[in-house]
Every structure is written in C-alpha cells, then in structure tokens.
Protein 1
Amino acid sequence: MLGVSEDLHGPRRLAARLARLGPLFVKTGQYLALRPDLLPQAYCDALLGLVDDAPAVPWEAIEAVLATELGAPPREVFASIRTVPLAAGSLAQVHLAETRDGRRVAVKVQRPGIAASVARSLRWARRAGPLIDRGLALPITSGELLNEIEAWLREELDFANELDNQLALRDAVRGLAGVRVALPLSELSTVRVLTAEYLEGMPFSQLLRLVRLGDAEVIARRGFDVELLAERLIHATYHQMFTARFFHADPHPGNLIAMPGNVVGLVDCGLSARLGPRLEAAQKDFLAALYDDDSVRLYRALASVVQPGRDSDMAAFRREFVAAADAWSDRRYAQAQPDGNSDTAGFMVTVMQLSRRHHVGVPPALLAVYRTLLTVEAVAQQLGAEADLGSVGRRFFAGSEVERLLGQIEPAQAMRWLGSLIELVRTGPPQLQDLLTQLTEGQLVLTTQSRQSEIDRRAADRRAKLVALALVSLAPVLLLAADLGPGWTPWLLGALALLYGAMLILWWRLR
C-alpha cells in the first residue's frame, strides 16, 4: 500500500499533484483509481474524481490531422464542423460536426504527436522506477505497473480497436432499456480519428459536480433521477458481462453520459474486455454464492480460474479467503461498510488483495471484471444513490436464472404443455367429480393380476390406490393455480382434503 497516511488529506494531495503534473499523469491517476488492490479505497475515490481536461489543441493542428486521416479537408468531408472542441483530453479532443446526410456526430481526433509523447513519458518513468519503488510500498513493482499502464494507453490510442469495441458493445446492449452506445461511422474513422453519432446529454463528471455542490434543483430541472441512472448503469454492466460476455471496461464518469429519459450513454470504448464461457460461468457462480453466503462455493468458483504459481501458498490463501468470506457474510446487510464499499465491492477488493499477498495469479479478464464493477459502484455512491452491486445483482442473477430455465424449454414442448393444461381446465371438474363419487362409494377399483397371496394382493391394491390418489390430487392443485373463480375454491379445497384423507388412511393400513 501507499507509504502515506490514509486520511483524506493524503488522497486529495495525490490527486491534486497528478492534476498539476499534466494530462498524462491524470490518465495514470484514472487508471490507479481502478486498482483498489494496489491503493487504499480513499485514494481510489479521490483519483476517480480526476477529470481528463487538457488545454485544447489549436484548430489548425486538428484540421491537419483530419485532412491526413480522411483524405480531404474536414470542411469537404463534413457538411459542417465546429472549430471549438466539445471536450479536450490528454489523448484526444472531440469536435461536433454534421455529416453530408444531416446526422450530428462527435469527431474524436488524436492530439498531434501524442503517441511519441506517451512513449517518451513511459521511458522516463521506467528510468525513475527504482525511485518510485522506494517511495511507494505497492504490492507490485513499478515495472509491472508501467507495463499495465502502457498496455492500457496503447489500447486507448488505437481508434480502429475502439471502433470495433463500440460496434460489439452496441450488440451487447441491444434491446436493453435505459442504456445506449453511440453508432460509430467506419467510413469516417481511422486509427487516429473516430466519428460516431452524438449522444445528447450531460457527462456524469459534470453531474457528479452538481451532486457534490448539493444542487438538487438543477439536477431535477434537467430531468435526471440519480437513483435510476445508478441502477441502470450497474444493471447494464452486469448484462454486458454475464449475458453478452463483452463489456465496457472503463466506465469512468467522463465516459458516461446522462441522457434525456435517464438513459445511460456509453462513450470511449477503447478499453473493453471479453469473458470466455468458463470464466463467465465461474464469476457468475462466484457472485451468486456471495449473495447466498456460501463461502465454500465462493472459494470453489474462484479456485477454478485463478493461476497458482511457484510461490503461491494456496492453503493460506484458502484459509484467509474463507475467513474473509465469513466476516463479510456477517455484515452483509449493513448499509455501508467501514471503507465505504458495499458487501460485494468490499469482498472483491479483499479477493484482489489476498491474491497479491499469496502470489496467486488472477486472469486479466477477471481483474477487468472486478475493476469495472468497483468503478460503477463508486460512481453510484458518488451520485448519492442507494443502488449498489448487491441490491442490483441479486435481482439480475435471479432473473438470469429464470431466463436460463425458460431458454431450455423448446417452443413445441411449451405448446404441448399449454394445450394439456387447457384441456385439464376444460375437462377436469367433471372427471374429478366422477373420481370423487367412485371414491366415496367405494367403487374406485384398480384391477391387478398377481400370483401373490390374498394379503399381498390387498397390500398391492392399496399401494396402487395410493399412487392413483396422489396423481389425482394434482388435478385440484392445478385447477386452483388456474384461478377458475372464487366459487370453485371451496369445492377444490374440499376435494383436496378428501383426497389427502383417503391417502392417509391407505398409508396407515399399509404400515
């Protein structure tokens, strides 16, 4: 952990220092905000508030990049384009434009020379690695951390990769209410330019500022419901991970748009991740077990995907894992945990910290899952919403299990079942009445042929009657479920009472 005090002054000082050092350090801070396994939660919360806001690049330089990448001056490519950017970040800036066919689009353009600047900064950071290691007591070396940051920035700088991710994410959320991914225009995009439909709304980073200022009136006037936005953000994240198995892995407040109707817009899709079937099933089982307070099943789900190494102490890892799971289970229903996390988020942080402590490898995709879930919950908390991973997750996984079971029923089979139920409702009452009449008059006889003794034949006959009555008792149960009306209820309940009484007598005689 950081070798500094964990009061609020330390996290704020670090965030302010990174902001003063420049945009690239802001990006590094945003990355560290997603690593609660490396930094205390207070630091992650402070760094999550960093806004990637850099001085705008002059239009002439942006115009040159657009002309080079698109093959013509921007005023020939677009019907119109604003020279003043909508937003300017450390890696790119965004300009509002209109296509020749009248669509409003956001044109994201890389800052000139940014790739070379990133490479130089990383080289400088690697030379300063020993100083960084001495100044920070992190559970990984500066070299490992810089490798992660370099890979992260490389993905962010590849706009062709981002376009593919954005198309995949649109498919991932297709038909999902309350979330939207902008449609990218491949014909107006390159590795350094990404053009996509413009999502009208307010960035979550701006919405969070209004929340911190306590300006509820402005938020209400804009028609935003922070509780609904938070719930939709978390639900959409679960859906991407465990239904589509492809998810936005950088849901930073600057990459989220609060749109009219409380729709959550997802932008900047450069960092996305895919879950394989095995990892998706294990993580879904992990979260379901967490909500069921099943520490043994929790460990089994995690152990199926972690990667023990030569220095791993799996016995100690399991012992501490189960102890931590039991401790979190005892506090599951608390409103908030001491570190500000919900039960789910706090346990995920614990898992990542234990894996680092005992040198147990965690697949990168699983780390991406944890980072993403922790980030969306942190955003929900900063919005002041009650929705968290646990409350939304329990509903999501319950609905997901129902969908899975229904998905196993073939349409033809379902239609046969429905037809049988309709026929039972139509013919059941008179048939049931005939059976009850035969039963009360002693006329219910099941013919059997046997070479057994008379006593054995009577016992066999009673067993057969008991089975028959058990089957017959299903009819009034189904008819009660069909809700034929209040007039039928007493008769059906009476029939059930008679059937169960007869079954009890037969069972007693068989003893």
Protein 2
Amino acid sequence: MSLKRIAVYCGASKGKDPVYMERGYELGKYMAEHGYELVFGAGSVGIMGAIQNGVLDHGGSAIGVMPRSLDDKEITSQRLTELVLVDSLHGRKAKMSELADAFILAPGGAGSLEEFFETYSWAQIGIHDKPMAVFNINNFFIPLQTMLDEMIDAGFIDAKYRALAPLYDDLEALFESLENYESVGTRSYD
C-alpha cells in the first residue's frame, strides 16, 4: 500500500507532561521526512500544533480542515500548506476522511476520541477500509485498549477488530503497520 496523506486526530491542548508535545513534534517530523502529508484539524495550539510544526519545520505539507464557525475560536494555524473550510464538525470529519489514506490517533480529549471512534465504526460497517493506528505516547491509550478488549470480550465488538487500530509508541513500527495494513473486513451480524 502506498500512503500519501495521513489524518491525525489529536488534542488542541498540550497535556501536563512535556513528552506529549515532544513526541507530537517527532511524529510531524517523521511524517515530513518520509513523504507523508498531514491532514488535521487546522489548530496551531497543543499537540495539534506540535505535530503541524514538526511537519512544516521539516519541509512537509499540512492540510488543515476547520469548520467556519470555529475558525476564530480554535486558533486556526496561519502556517498551513492548505486550509479547507467546511460548514460543520460533521463536515470536518467527512472531509478529513475523504482526504486521508490512513488515520492516526494521538493523545487528546473527548473530541479526539469522538473523531477516532467515528472512523473506527465506519471501518466496521464498510464506509472505509483504510489503515488506522494509535500513537501511544507515554502509555496514554492503555485504558482505551483495555476498554476495547472488554467490549470484545463481552461480545459487543467482533474479535477481529482487535487488530483494527493497534497501539504503538515507536514511530517506525506505527508507520510500518499502516503501510502493511491488511483489511479485517466488515462487521458480521450474528
């Protein structure tokens, strides 16, 4: 699989530990150095801004997707390679999905999880069949993995989806998994 554009869902906050911003910047740098374009929520602050800066500081491209109504509130980056304005948050997610060849979840809050889980559920029902991975900075997503495992064990998510969005703290392994993605198929209704 040849991936060009990667959508990253992440926070507009920086978190309490500086490691989130440092590793976010590393993610952006890695993307630029390996020819991946960033598709993201267009914010200039928090881990979102760190990832963007890592991309742009190393000669990469950053495509930001921002709802018009949040253009001022979310501190839209002025450094973007391209800004795409949409009518709503729903439009933002749809546009990011349309533009992206793959998806990464990095640390963030409820909005990041909401974006990720919509993409996750879209994969389950066949709206897309694109690779997904989770950048597990500082073991941030271990509780999320535990919750997904509980949902699988309880029979609410098919066991095959254990492999849908694996956790990685190593960037090389993360991107290798995206590049070598094998479809897990759509949900079965038993």
Protein 3
Amino acid sequence: MLRIILTCIALTLCPAGAGADSFPVEIQHRFGTARIASAPKKTVSLSFIGHDFLLALGVKPYALRKWYGTDPYGVWEWGHDALGDAQPIVMQGEINIEQIAAMEPDLILGQWSGMRARDYALLSQIAPTIAPRVEFGDYGTPWQEMQRTVGLATGKSAEAEALIDRIETRFETIRNAHPDWQGATSVMVWAGQTGAYTDRDIRGRFLEDLGFRIPESINERGTLDNFYVLISAEDLSPIDVDALVWIDAGGSAPVLNRMHLRPTLRAFAEGREVYADPMLSAALSHSSPLSLDYALDRIVPLIEAAMDGNPGTVVPSSRDAGILPERQ
C-alpha cells in the first residue's frame, strides 16, 4: 500500500501563518509557489476530479472542469448531496484562459488537469494557481495529496486530515479482514482498449491499498506520465493475475465477450474476474474521499466472491454484465 503520511515540511505545503488553517499559505508545485493570501471564496477547479475534493470539505466550486458522464454539472452520484442546489459553471475541453479570467476567481486548482507551463504563466496572473508536484506528474497525484492540498488552500486542513484518516482506516480494516488478499496479484484493466493501470495511477493504488500487488510486468512499462499500459490482444499474459478487475467507462462489456484470448486467463477459468460497471468505474477513477466510500461499498463484496477459492462462485457484477464463462 502506498500510505502517504507526511509532515508539512515533507509535503512542502507550509503555512506562512502560525496556525494550520491561518492565511496566508504557500503551496509549492512543479511551476513554482502559489501564495494564497486569504480564504478563497470563488474557487475554479481545472482538475478533472478536483471538484470532488472540494465537495468532500463542504466547499462548492464556482466553476469546474467536467471530465465525462451525463450529469449537467459534471458531479457524479456520490457528490450530489455535497453539491446540493449549487450550479457551478461547467468547463469542458482544453483550458480556456479567457473564460477563466472572466470569472475573476481567487483560487485555481490545477492538479490532475494536464496544465502546461504556458497555461500556468497566464493563470497565475489571474489568481493563485496550484499545479501538481513534479514527482507526481500530470495525473499521478495520490488522493491523499490531493485532499491535503485542497484542505490547506481552502483553510480546511483539519477537515482534510480527518477525511484521510477515516478512509485510510477503512482500507486498513478491509486489509485486516482479508489476509488472503495481501500480496496477491491484481490489476485494473480498461476493457475498451485493453490497457492496464500501473501503481502510479489512482486505480492501481486503490488495489495496493487493499493489499494487492500490481505485477512488475505492468509497472516496469509505466513512466511518470505513462500510467496506462496497452496490452496486446495477442498476449494477455501480463494481466493474468489473481484478481482481474475490468474497468468499463461505457459499452465495454460486449468487447470482453469478443476478446478471443480471454478464456486463456486463469482469472477467467477460475471465476476471479470482477466487472466494474460505468458507475463503479467512475468512482474508482475519481478516487476522492466521496467516491472511495462508494467504490469500497460496491467492490469489496465483488472481490470477496472472486477470491473465495471456489471457481463456481458467481461474481454478481460479471453475471449481470453477461461476461461469465458458459459453464457458470
């Protein structure tokens, strides 16, 4: 498990004031330092998942960048209660500097945004702008780091730490209850393009937090900004693991039934495939404190069914998606 328990100095998220939630605060990142003079009142989230981390702290974004899905405000089911009746401005596609400038924000969150140096140079003239830290790359920031940063930037560090502690404790409880998962191999694979997520990705880290191990055959092919490894349809051996989780962003279940070499996988033959439908896949892909609760509620029983040692046990999600072997 990648457990991020770092001090203020190690995180380089050191408040300039005396208290944990006092302002101003300074947050270091790949392009420099963001200095936030006072508690922000109009926050723009350019991160594809950053609004979840704001909502988890009770902060409603003034504007957010929609990733995918049908919700008009880009917020998935697990965030609806926190969003309430707020109607944030929704941005889509590439970062639009002029649109953001017109909003006159007092904080711009850019972790998990793909922000380039030229974007930052302009955005930071509009408002304090937080890019990812260099060691995490564009889309590799762990959820704990995301939440800590958002907490410090919004004056809610204590609330952020409480959220992190609660979710990490939940993972620990699940690990303790499933000793057979510890060290077993697992990987999440997007069925649409047959690509596996490395341990640099939040989906890979989710499995590690449950005690599973991502195979080195996957991790060694990843880089700082290449957290997703394509798997050849002619050789599925890199994903022949103890617990195989299929990610579906929408419409991928039929693809699995057309995957000719899938029956050669042990997970297929022994009933150890877990199908994550689009809602569960989205929760895993956001990996915020809000979506992690949802994801754990749903996926733990599915993995338990897959890992019970009985090939005849039906994994409900795989049955419902129609991807079970005919013998089942």
